[in-house]
Amino acid sequence: MSTLILAIFRDYIMGGHNPSIEIEKYDWSKTNVVMFVDIIYEKVKHNKLQTSTFTNTVWEEINKELYQVTNKNYGVERLKGKWNRLRTRQRLFAALLAHTGVTMDPDTNKVNAPEEVWIEFYLKNKKEYKSIRKEGSDHFHILNEIFGGTTATGDMHRASTQLPPTSDEERELE
């Protein structure tokens, strides 16, 4: 009997696929999105990404880590859904920024574009591009590293907010 209780508890905490466990429904606050992005970024930096997603084991780790910092059990499937929505938004945002005449304000993470560009992109996906126009993309640079396959790892990796290493620091790393 105690084995069953442990299995149910593990599935609850880890966000497993036990149909007898109902995962609480939570909205994604800005704080929780930041925590989720930080966790998945660390997983990507540690080469846990398998092609375009994580293994189920890694998703369970992510759910557990997120639960520890938010006290909310989103569950693996909900995390995968959030992952897909973030990836879609990052790709749409990147496509917009690649258009001639479009810039991003680094202070607000909002896009500056001529009205005709917005009209063109609204024809592609009005709902998402209206949201991008209004809100920008708070995590664009990190998401670009996660989904763009350009994450640096190893001794020489640096966050975009860090200064490049000095020549002395580089020699120490070699």
UniProtKB/TrEMBL annotation:
Residues 151-174 are annotated as: Disordered. It holds the Pfam family Myb_DNA-bind_3. Transmembrane segments: none annotated. Signal peptide: none annotated. Residues 28-120 form the Myb/SANT-like domain. This is Myb/SANT-like domain-containing protein. The lineage of its organism: Eukaryota, Viridiplantae, Streptophyta, Embryophyta, Tracheophyta.
